[in-house]
Structures are given as structure tokens and as C-alpha cells.
Amino acid sequence: LAFNTGFAMAFVGALYIMFYIRERTTRAKLLQMVSGVNVALFWAVSFVWDYLVYLVVCGFYLGTVAAIQQDGWSTAEQLVKVFLMLVLFGFAVIPTTYLFSYLFDVPATGFVKMILFNVLSGTVFFTAITLLKFEGIDLKDVANALEWVFMFFPNFVLSHSLNNLNRVASTEALCDRQCELIP
């Protein structure tokens, strides 16, 4: 589920780029600045609005995850942890998307390239680290070094943290089952 969430959030994070590319290329942003809108106020209001929309998406996601009742993702405590991770992910991915909006002039192109970047920096890096940590490959040192490098990418951090949350929940469930066997 961590992999799938990272993949889905690659699309969610990329959605915010289209409006800001269009606003910049049509010079609507310039018109706002000329009419006296403070730059800091412009970006603060934009972030607050985008973040509120993002929280609605997170609510739908959590509702879906709660309905599925997947092991490690089903209790209220686990869902609160997932929500906290999504909240923090939003604080990272939205400003990152704002920065990338300056690299593109066509909204659709920016959207597609941002999706590709998010998928690469999230799910592909996450899969690579997971594969490098397998026992038979014997590249755990490389995986640990790359893991720290990839921590700069919000999508990787989301997948990695959700995977760690699932691993902890699975270990706790296993320990609980084993402790029940002790007389």
C-alpha cells in the first residue's frame, strides 16, 4: 500500500503545477503584482488554498483506506499516523511544485513532466532502495547511502515512511500473536 500511495500522490502533487504555469505565462500574476498584491501574501494565500484542497484529497484517501481495512492501516491510531504523514507530505510537495512551475511554459507539459519526476523520485527510488536491501543482493550499504540522498524528494519520503509504518505495525502484530502463546 505504501508503493501505491506514493504512486497516487505523485499525481496529486503534480496537479498544482498547471495553474501556476498558466498564471505566469498569461501574465495574470504580473497583473496582480502591478496592482499592488504583495508577493509574500500572494504565495501565502495560494499555499493556504492549495493546502486546503490537498487536505480534502487526504480525507478521501483516508476514508478509502479505512474502508478497505488493510492490516497495518486499519486502526484509528494507524490512520492518524498515516494522516500525519500525509499532512507533512503536503507541506513538502506543494512548495516543491511551486518551484518547478518556473521550469515550464506549457501547463500540460509541466503537469506530465512533474508526474514523471514525482514517480521517478518516489516510487522508482523507493523500489530501488527496497530491492537493494534484499538479503541476496548484499548492497545494504549502498541502499543506506542512497536512502539519505533520496530523502530530499518528498515522494520518496512518503513511500518510505508509510512502508516503515506498515513494517512497525506488522512487527507489533507478530509480537502480540507470539506473546499470546506464552503461558
Automatic annotation (TrEMBL):
It is found in: Membrane. Residues 5-166 form the ABC-2 type transporter transmembrane domain. GO terms for cellular component: membrane. It is a multi-pass membrane protein. Keywords: ATP-binding, Membrane, Nucleotide-binding, Transmembrane, Transmembrane helix. GO terms for molecular function: ABC-type transporter activity; ATP binding. The chain crosses the membrane at residues 6-21, 51-68, 80-104, 110-132. This is Retinal-specific ATP-binding cassette transporter. It comes from Culex pipiens. The lineage of its organism: Eukaryota, Metazoa, Ecdysozoa, Arthropoda, Hexapoda.
